[in-house]
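Entry: Ig-like domain-containing protein
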Amino acid sequence: MKKIIFVVFFLMTYIGFSQDYGFLFKTEVQATAHANLFNASVVTDSPEVYPGIGYNSTPQNVGSIYYDFIELNNNFNTATVNLYSHWISLSDPVSCNSDDTYTYTRNEFINNLVGYNTKDCNFFTIVYPIHIIEPSANEFCPDQEIVLKYGYHWQFSFDGINWNSFPTSLNTKRVTSFTLKELFSLSGIPDSQWQSESNIKFQTGYRTEFTNIRNITIINCSPKLDGPIIDIQPLCSNSINHNDNDNGSFTVTFDRELDDTKQEKMNLQVYRQVGSSFDGYASKVVTKSDFTGTSYTWEPKNLPGGVYKLFWQTKSNNEGFDDINTVPDAYDESNPFTLTTPPALSVSGAPSPVQCFGGNDGSITVTPNGGTPGTPPTSPRYQYSIDNGTTWQQETLFDSLTKGDYTILIKDNNGCEATSAPITVNERFLTIPDVVGLSALITSPTLINGNNGRIAISVSSGSGNYTNYAWTKDGNPFTPPSGSTNTNIINLYEGVYTIVVTDSNGCSSNLETFTLTDPEPIDISINMTPNTVNCSDTKVNLIASATGGFLNSGGDYTYLWDDGTTEASLTNVGIGNYQVTVSDQGGNSQSKSFQVQGPEPITAIPTVSNVGCKNGSDGTIQLTINGGTGQYTVNWTKLFDNT
């Protein structure tokens, strides 16, 4: 192998300088040909001149791999790499020429360190831009993963003077990831040494040439997660009871409890994904009393659905997290976890119309969607209400509905509620048969227990074609008597009659009711004047009057006394029994007796005891008096004197 150094002076000039940027060239000789060579060069927009790299291909070095490192002065903005290779054939008029150029800006070193490679003219070359990109933080605890990029050969140091190469498993990598515990263990650094250190430095390059140094502060570790975060999903997404929405939470368990003896507390920060990044959403500082053992559940439960990360760090001695004079423990974070909001709960309804005007045979069949359905028979899938939540049912059919607008409430297994849009139940046929009683032709029976009553009706509206007349009497189906028609019923007894008329649309009229009543029985009253009879020969007048029965308008009753008198009054009658018969104009009659009561005629029956001797005075007359009224007054008159 023959290594060509184009500018030895400049190579010597840059050896030993510690710069922030560089290129590592890895060149493999894969075959050989006549005049087979490879050259590499770097130029920047700054005035510095950098050494070139060159190799010839020979049978002896086929398969060899060469490493070359060129450091760049920090004052450049653009760096250009040129790779040139060539060979010619002695037997054929062919040759190989390759000339590739790659340009980097300073920002690309920081943000996009992509390596380039070429495979031309028997040389395979990989160009590694070298520059340590800042790690994700400048403070790490021994258990946290550190990612360093972009380098090749890595070293670490506590004091910046004594440098240690990374162990083989972590070295010679463009990107290396590790924990400090892992690095120290694989490097044979005893715990007693590194646990007393507060800083560690890293550099990368190749062999003795290295670029920029990155310094990291070593801090204590916060508690680590002990298992995945357990999500507590929000119950609802769009419940009309807003307290049921956005009420997600989570339970996180750590590998140890907070230490009350050190007044240790934890700063919990919840980040929510917005687009492709996570933004701070909520935070709180908690102490051991907020935990259940090593577990903490986020309260209040107020997290909406989304993708979250949890960040946390601890601090002891009751120091505030905003106290810049003290350093908290390492900031740690969880993997993303998801709070999934249930699908939006909704309900729709398919109405069936009321068949006929004023009917109540409409219905609504509801269809649920989303939410969290229950699992019968343990719990109903959904519940529905048509009366704003007063009553609920599991069935999806609401029937016996009249025309109108209805709103359905739905409730899922989580208690979330949603409301439907108004659902209109229409009427299919806008009119029904209209039955009207013809009052002039509706008559009750005129004869008590008679059957000469009549009902006449007229029917209109509906379809105009009436297919059924359903009559009832006293609640029972009734067939009109012979001689009747559907609308003119004759020879009716008293009773309650109803009629429902149905048309060809199947629509029925409202129930019409007609009540026929028999006349009231004739009630006769007899008055006597004067109203008392003091003597057996007193004369009185009897006056009869009647109510009830049937009378035509302006009509009157007829009277017949038992003595043939045809007037309402029977005059100048004495003590005795009398009877009058009253007849109405409907063929009804009623009789009533009346007794004129008075005293019996006064009778005096004497019992005589004659005088025993002439001129004696022992004669007596004893009267037995009957009849009359009350006490008797006796006036004696001596008719003759035998003295």
